[in-house]
Amino acid sequence: MILEGARANLKNHPELEIIVLDQPLEKPLNVLGSYCPAAVIFDMGAIQHESLLSLLQQPDLLLIGIDPETHQALVWSGRQASAVAAADLINVIRTDSLRNQKPNEI
User: How far apart are CA 50 and CA 101, in angstroms?
Assistant: First the structure.
C-alpha cells in the first residue's frame, strides 16, 4: 500500500518518468540496465539482499527502500568516489553530511 501511494504521488510530477516493475527481479542489473534509471524505489521486505548488493554496483544509482511496517525509507547510493587517502574519505563524509542537513542548518 505504501508503494502504491508513493507511485500515485510521483505520477503528479511530470518531470519524472515512472516505470513500474511489479514482479520480483531475478537479475535486476539486466532488467534495469535497459531502463537506465536514476532511482529505484522498492519494498524492503520483498527484495533479496544479493539483488540489492548487485544494484549498488550501478554508479550514481539511488536506491530507496521503503519499509511498509515502519513507514521509513532507507536510501543507498551507488555513487563512487576516490578514496586513496584519508582526506578523500573525509570529503565523502562531508559531502554526504551536507546533503543530509536541513536547509536552515546549512
Answer: 31
Residues 19-59 have pLDDT tens digits of 887 666 666 667 777 788 888 888 887 776 677 777 777 77
Instruction: Determine the Cα–Cα distance for residues 58 and 92; give it in Å rounded to an integer.
Output: 18
Please indicate, yes or no, whether the overall pTM of this predicted structure exceeds 0.90. no
DSSP secondary structure code for residue 48 in this structure: -
Q: Quick check: 63 and 40 in contact, CB under 8 A?
A: yes
Supply angle C-alpha 10, 11, 17, rounded to 5: 90
| CB proximity list for 19: less than 8 A, separation 6 or greater | 35, 37
In the structure, how many helices (H) and strands (E) does the chain have?
4, 3
